[in-house]
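Retry 2 of 3 after timeout on previous attempt. Resubmitting structure tokens to design endpoint.
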């Protein structure tokens, strides 16, 4: 790699990457000096299974699991370190790994008898908000060890040695079998503060239309009379396009009316969903009425669970997606702003790019 020139550095080429906080990070030594390498790798599978959906949550609730080459402690292994707590464990067996996963990674309480080193004094742990620790997630409690139970029911080896190969093969075979067997309509959520949430859903709209699928779009919040480029394109493509908004909240003259319009839009969306006339339905900016409390998110989830046709794809966009909706969805993408022309160059929204 060539060294950055001063000009490149001045233009931002040497800026460090951005990093969002996450719940916890488990580091497992697999170098081979403190314990056999395969022991560390089998612990990785045990931790992953024990954490289940927590590894797939978005930050700051996500718990990461990583195998590292060496943690610098060449005895008493397998060695496991948990950060940002700075707590180190020795002689970690499969049973202890499960205990660490439940008690420390999920509940936030280190397994004291197995701790041999602390980066911070026990009475003065690092100060950061409990929400960032990942102790209280958006998952249902019974989901936490669901994957681990599946492994145990499949009669995985009790010993550490050899468990990694069994777990890897068992998981891969299970995924392949499931992938061939399962076919269902997805609930897709595009959220986050970055640009591209609606844009991504319009890509699905176009791709689906190109495949001959029946597509409909319901726009919330945006003025129902707006003639954005996507609405004009949908009209030419013969795609059903409906709107229920009176403009964004900061331009609304009557928020009570805005809320009622959103509820009316949801009732129309329910009719579209149960009509069986569509294969893909986009609910654009639907997260906002949920976030503002105009529409109860739990009622929406229960209704979709009960009434959405099995093969219907529903795409929901907007910032501030409620955590319950994220849990319910099959596919969630968070858009993160890295650079924006308005903030950096004062360039306002342009036809064909933003509208």
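Retry 2 succeeded. Sequence:
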């Amino acid at each position: 790699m060539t060294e950055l020139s001063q000009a490149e550095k001045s233009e931002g080429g040497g800026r460090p990457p951005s990093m969002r906080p996450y719940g916890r990070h488990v580091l497992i030594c697999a170098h081979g000096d403190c314990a056999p390498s395969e022991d560390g790798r089998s612990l990785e599978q045990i931790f992953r299974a024990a954490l289940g959906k927590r590894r797939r949550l978005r930050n700051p609730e996500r718990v990461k699991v990583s195998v590292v080459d060496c943690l610098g402690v060449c005895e008493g292994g397998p060695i496991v370190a948990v950060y940002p707590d700075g707590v180190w464990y020795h002689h970690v067996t499969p049973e202890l790994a499960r205990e660490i996963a439940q008690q420390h990674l999920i509940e936030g309480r280190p397994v004291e008898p197995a701790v041999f080193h602390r980066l911070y004094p026990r009475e003065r742990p690092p100060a950061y908000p409990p929400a960032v620790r990942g102790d209280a997630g958006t998952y249902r409690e019974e989901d936490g060890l669901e994957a681990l139970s599946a492994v145990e029911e499949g009669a995985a080896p009790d010993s550490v040695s050899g468990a990694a190969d069994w777990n890897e093969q068992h998981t891969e075979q299970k995924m392949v079998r499931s992938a061939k067997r399962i076919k269902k309509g997805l609930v897709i959520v595009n959220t986050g503060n970055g640009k591209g949430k609606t844009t991504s859903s319009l890509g699905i709209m176009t791709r689906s239309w190109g495949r001959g699928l029946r597509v409909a779009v319901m726009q919330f919040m945006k003025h129902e009379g707006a003639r954005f480029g996507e609405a004009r394109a949908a009209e030419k493509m013969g795609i059903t396009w409906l709107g229920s908004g009176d403009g964004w909240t900061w331009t609304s003259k009557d928020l009570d009316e805005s809320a009622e319009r959103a509820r009316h839009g949801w009732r129309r969306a329910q009719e579209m969903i149960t009509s069986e006339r569509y294969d893909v339905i986009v609910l654009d900016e639907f997260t906002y009425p949920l976030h503002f409390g105009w529409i109860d998110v739990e009622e929406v989830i229960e209704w979709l669970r009960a009434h959405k046709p099995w093969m219907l794809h529903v795409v929901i966009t907007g910032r501030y997606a409620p955590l319950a909706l994220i849990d319910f969805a099959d596919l969630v993408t968070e858009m993160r702003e890295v650079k924006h022309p308005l903030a950096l160059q004062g360039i306002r929204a342009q036809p064909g790019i933003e509208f």
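Attempt log closed. Confidence is low (pLDDT under 50) at residues 7-12, 128-164.
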